[in-house]
Amino acid sequence: FDCVVKVRTNVVEKEVPNQSTRTKKPCCRILRLLLLLLPHFLSKLYKMPSLEGNLLSNPLGVVALIFDRCKADGSDFASELQKNLKSRVMNADSLTWVPSLNDAPLHKFQANCLVRYRGMIQDMFGPEIFLSQYELGETEDGPAKELCCGWYQDIADCPAGRVVLMESPKQELAERQAFYCVPLPGETPWAKEVFASQGKQPENFDSMSPVSSQSDAASSCEDTTPTRKRPRPDDEASCTAGEVTMGDDSTGDSSLQREHTSAEGDAQSKRVRTSAAGGGESSSPPAPGIQSVSDLNFPLPGEQGPPCIVKVYEDIDSYRVNEMVEFIGVLSVDPALTSSSYTQSAEETSMDAASAKEDAAHSPPPNLVPRLHCIAARRLPHSNPLLPAEQDAFKQQSASTAENASPCREELCRQLAAILGGDQLAAQFLLLSLVSTVYGRHDASVMGKFSLNLANISSRLPAVVIKQLSEALQQLVPKFFCLPMSLEHLNNRSLCPKKDYTTNRLVTGELQLSDGTVLLLDETALSEGQLNERGIANIVAINSVLSQQRLAYDFQYQTIDFPTNVNAIILSEGKSILQMDCFVPVQPDSECPVAPALTDSQLSVLRTYLTAVQHIEYDLTADMQTHLQEDFVAMRKADPERVTGDTFHRLLLIARSVPRSLAGTSIDIHKDCVG
Prior knowledge:
Largest sheet: 5 strands, mixed, barrel
Shape: globular
Distance between the termini: 68 Å
Strand order of the largest sheet: 1-5-8-10-9
Oligomer: single chain
Structural class: alpha+beta
Strand content: 15-25%
Number of strands: 21
Radius of gyration: 30 Å
C-alpha cells in the first residue's frame, strides 16, 4: 500500500502544476481524500485482516496475503512474516487479546484461530517434511491457477474442481519439528487462576463457534467417522476435490537422542484425503493401538489441562526437553489428524500394521490433543504469573521487590515457624532452600543446589504438619509436588521417563519436572518391607536428583542424564536415607505462637518475593573469595578430619543463600548471618 500511495502522490505532484488556480485546490482535496481511503478499499478488496479482528480468527489469511505479496514483489517471505505478523503477536499486549488454551475448554475455540499455549516440552517427535508452497490447478495436465502457501497448517485446502499439482516444479518442501507439550507439571491452583485472569479475552471470543465442517472433534475418537482408506500411490495425484496433509506426524524417531534422529521425508508419501463430505459410518475396527491414545502422558497424576502437539518452524534445534515455553500460533483441530480416521484394509502391509501403534501415539484425536502451529514463542524463565517474563521488565519489578525483602523474609519465617512448631532456625533453613537455584555446573559438581532434610517429623511433631506444610507451600510457590515415599508408590510407579520404541515416544515419569518446581519428599510414609527392582531404581533416581540435579532417562540400550533444577525438601522422622545438602532436626517450642492468616494481598507480595529473590544476579568479589579461602584453610587446620571440601561447599551455599533471601547481590560478612 505504501508503494501505491507513493506512486499516486508523484502523479498528483506532476499533474497539479498544470491545472488552473481555481481547480487546483478542489482537485488536490479530492485526490488527497482518495489517497486516504485507498488503503481501506484495498484492504477490503484483498481481505486484509485487522490486528485484533481477523488476525485472531483468520491468521492463515494474513499469512496467505503476505505470501502473495512476497511472490509478487520478490521480497523475502521470512522477513515479511517477522515484520507483519510475528512482531504483532509477540509483545506484552498479545496477552490481552490472544486467548489461551490453558484457560478455556477446547470446544470454545474456532478452528484455525490464533491461540496461546503455556506448557513444558515433554517429548520431541521426529522432524516433519511439509509442503511450504504448492500449486492448485484445474486438472493435472492443465495450467496451474494458483500458487498457495503451506505454512502453519496440517491439511492443504483443495476446493472442488481444483487439484494439488504434486509434480509441479514450483512445489517446495521444508522441515518443521513437532513437540509433545503438557501443562506445567505441578502448577498450583492460584497460579492457574492468576494466569486466567490476566489473559483478557477479545470481545468476539465468546461468539466464536466451533467449525461444524471440520468439526465435531469430540466425535473423532468414536466409531462414527466416515470410512477412509489410505490411497494407493497411483491414486494420490487423482484427487480432484479434497485436502492434502501437509506433514507426517510420525516421521522418524524421537530427537531426544540425536543418534536416533531421522530427518528423512518423502513428499510422495503424503496422505491425500478424498472428499471431505464423505458419508456413512465406519464399520471397520480401529487400527491396533488406538485404544492407548487415551494415555495423555502427564508426568503427575490428576492433571486436568490439555496437552498439545506444537509444530515449530524456526530455530528447531534450540529447544530442549522439560523447557517451559509459551507458544502463539494457529490452532488445528481437524478430525482427520487422528490416526483412527484411517481404517485398516486388507491391502495394507504388515509394516503398516506394525506402525499403527506409533501412528496412534503420534496422531491422537485432536479433541484430546490439539495441534498448534507456532508462529512465535518465548521461553519462560519462571512460572510466576505475578512477574513479567520479559527480562527488562522482570529486573525492574524485582528491584522494587528488593526494597521490601526484609519484612517479607520475616513474615515468611514467622509463617513457616508456626507450622514447624515454632522452630525459627528450621524455618530459616526452609526459606533458604526455597530461594536456592542451580547457577552453575562443572563436571560432577553442581553449584547452587540446596536439598534440605527436616527431621523429627511425626516423632516430635504431629503428622498433620506434613499436610499443613504442603498446603502452605502450594499457596506460596507456582509449582509444587508432594511425592509420598511409601513402598507401594516406589515399587509400582515409574519416576524416570522411559523410551517406548513400540510407540516411538517418551513415556513420562513423576520426576520429569520443569525448573523451579518445589519437590516435597515425604519419607514418613516409608514403612518396613522390601523394595523390588523398580523401587530400588526409583531410590537411585531420587538420589541422583538430590545430589547432582540430574535424572537418567531410560532409552533401553543406554541411559542419558538430563539436567534438573528442583527445590527438594525431605521430611523424615530420623535422618533421611536419601542424600541431602543440609540436615536440620526440628526442635518444636511448647510456647509456639499462632501465626495470623495471610490476606490475598499479603500472599501476592510473598509470592512475588520468593520468585524475585531466586533470580537475583549474584556476584562474589575477588576480595571475598580470598577471605573465604583463608577461612577454609584455618578451619581445615583446626579440624582436618571433619572439615572437607563438601563442608566448604555447604557453608558457601548458605553464605550465598542468606543475602539472596534479603535481595542482596553479594556477601557482607558484617551483616549476613543465620538467626
